[in-house]
Amino acid sequence: MAVAGRDKRTSRKEALRRARREDWAGWVRSEADHRALEAGHWFDAAAAERVREFFRKFLRHSKGEWAGKPFELLPWQWEDVVAPLFGWKRPDGLRRFRKAYIEIPKKNGKSTLAAGLALYLLVADGEPGAEIYSAAADRDQASIVFNEAALMVRASPGLKGRALVTDSRKQIGWPLSNSYYKALSADVPTKEGLNWHGLLFDELHAQRTRRLWDALMYGGIARRQPLSVAITTAGYDRESICYEQHEYARRVTEGQVRDLSFLPVLYAAGAKDDWTKSKAWRKANPSMGVIFSEASLARDCQEARESPRKENAFRQRRLNQWTEQAERWLVMEKWDACGGEADAGALAGRPCYAGLDLSSTTDLTALVLLFPPAEEEKGWSVLAFFWAPETGARKREDRDGVPYLTWAKEGLVELTPGEIVDYDRIRTRINALGERYKICEIALDRWNATQLATQLDGDGFTVVPFGQGYASMSGPSKELEKRILAGELAHGGNPVMRWMAANAAVERDAADNIKPSKKKSTERIDGIVALVMATGREMVQGAGEDKKSIYEERGVLLI
């Protein structure tokens, strides 16, 4: 039903004057809100307050020190989520917002908020036959919001006895309006044909594919004012549906996309913020000091500082920063500190060990030369060379924003004509490098380079098959990590290698062996794999005959 006086466009100044007269101008907080005013949208303070009163009167916390106490919305939950979602109205009096994307670190009460929203939409939103769903990547995750909602119902004098909780089906019924709330997960066979009024996506970053999102997203099209809310922490997969929604939310926030029906709520430390400082923690965690203490976050931060492999988990889950991978292997500050010049001219005639990672014929190939330190030098020098098929490079730059063509212009990547890498060009280049440097050995993946290995062997190089399992990769991977942490590497600041170092994730077995993982890394790491292989061969062959090697001094066992 249309609301009188709300159905025509007005100037921004006129709309703002009306908002001030009606005492809700404080809810006009963004450029999108100003545009909404011009389009005849308005803020219904009473409607927003009804939702807050529902939380306070009917819902109870179920855990920790808050157990049994009324659900008083925290300032961020009220000001940034609940009031905007339910207060802003379209000219016809229906809700302005139809979608919300809320990205916030763990431990800030997001699942509890999602449970409360699900119950309000089920019980008090005035929608006959409402279907409310919470969705998640798997059954365990899907149970979190449902279990919280079920505990709230059982603890509420106003809901207990009237809402029907069926734990085995993960469902809560509300017979008074013939409505129900149900938890769904990606491993349930079918979600087509659902006619939802409310949809809560929990931990969207954990969705392995976009199938569940796509299956559910248009299910509310037949409802008057459907509401979908995705609540998640940041992730690392830039190809995921979550990152797609993150980027859409960012563009709406920055005014690049005009979507008056989409509410973006992003809490995160900035890319340039010092992640070890409390200022960044407060920026990302609006519930700090209420739900959890700053001291507990400081302890987690200290663990992350002491272990590079915990850094990304901390930054992703506690500061809500999108990282390059789930578990960062290399500390980028330490990698950058190893950016000393690797003088290609001064290295001429010096012995070196090569790692060659051919990868796919349609993607990057990497060759890394590793030069052991001379008597007066502190550490190892690295020269890296890359090849890519020109057609594929252009496509990937357009699709992913990886600057292959810029790197090619700078001489960092050699593009070969066509759709696949020309191995003959790689062979020619290796032979030219062999004339300039003393390449002692070339390590190759034994399963991926039979023909080229035979050709290089015929050219006079010593070609050594190098497995990609833990037995071959763990020792040199750990040694490379030690050298980087000790500042005993000079890679010349090669931007392609830096990109790959930032992408690199590792796999780990029960014995704490590690290896670079192309599966876990979200982008190319071919240069790092090649560097590990070169390190492995240099570890075996590079120790001097007349002195105790650096590996013996470090207690590294060479097999």
Structure description:
By secondary structure, this protein is of the alpha/beta class. It folds into 2 domains: 12-266, Rossmann fold; 334-554, Nucleotidyltransferase, domain 5 (2-Layer Sandwich), CATH 3.30.420. Helices cover 39% and strands 16% of the residues. The protein is built from 20 helices and 19 strands. A hairpin with a 4-residue loop joins strand 5 (164-166) and strand 6. Helix 17 packs across helix 19.
CATH topology of the largest domain: Rossmann fold
Query: Number of helical runs?
Result: 20
How many domain regions?
A: 2
Helix content: 25-40%
* CA distance, first residue to last residue: 79 Å
Mass-distribution shape: elongated
**Can you tell me the CATH class of the largest domain?**
Alpha Beta
Decide which structural class fits the backbone: alpha/beta
Strand order of the largest sheet: 5-6-7-4-8-9-3-10
Q: What is the number of E strands?
A: 19
Radius of gyration: 29 Å
Q: Which superfamily, in CATH terms, is the homologous superfamily of the largest domain?
A: P-loop containing nucleotide triphosphate hydrolases
The low-confidence parts are 1-5, 544-559
Q: Classify the beta-strand content into a percent band.
A: 15-25%
Largest sheet: 8 strands, mixed
Rounded mean pLDDT score? 89
Identify the CATH architecture of the largest domain: 3-Layer(aba) Sandwich
Keywords:
559 residues; alpha/beta; Rossmann fold; Nucleotidyltransferase, domain 5; 2 domains; eight-stranded mixed β-sheet; 20 helices; disordered N terminus; disordered C terminus
